Fold this sequence. Notes:
Shape: rod-shaped
Oligomer: single chain
Structural class: mainly alpha
Largest sheet: none
Number of helices: 3
Mean pLDDT: 87
Amino acid sequence: MMVEKRDPRVFFAAERTLLAWARTGITIIGMGFMIERFGLFVHMMEQGAGNTTGRGASFWIGLACILFGAATSALAALQQRSFIKVLQPDDLPEGYRIHMGTIGAMGLAVIGIVLAVYLIWGLRL
């Protein structure tokens, strides 16, 4: 009978994947924010600095990108969490805080949602 040797590199490969998805989420959130702000800038240039209501399609496209980036990060964190559950104890590095990447990705998702709420709330003003 051959005993399979466990390898913590499996965990680190999964963590690198999580961090890649978190970077993707950051990029999508940032792109959405830039789309939204650029649309506001163009609208202000057309209407003058006073009236900023009715921003148009750029607001909704930017908001959708922000929410998609937040969802990407949250889903990556959930996927990482479910993957960690199936690993054997030998696959986990000893003394390593295995949930830091998951916490960071979930924090990014929360920040994206807060940004979306802020932009929606700003639309009402």
